């Protein structure tokens, strides 16, 4: 039983000490600006952080699609690019 406890403890420490991915505004913009050239960096960042707040309270990311479409007057495709990029890169 003790060896199992030691392995479990070691695994827990290793997982807890694993480095986290560094999210950044730069990576977010690098993903989006080549495809969504008609929006400014400021527009993309503002909406990205709005998406973060929206999903941060437990709402599904799919529910953010109409919000992004209305806010930026973009297509479903563009909204579906912005939302996951925000969640992944802006540390939502």
From TrEMBL:
> Which residues belong to the signal peptide in this entry?
1-22
Q: Which UniProt keywords apply?
A: Signal
Note the superkingdom of the native organism. Answer: Bacteria
Protein name listed in UniProt = DUF732 domain-containing protein
Q: Which organism is it from?
A: Mycolicibacterium hodleri
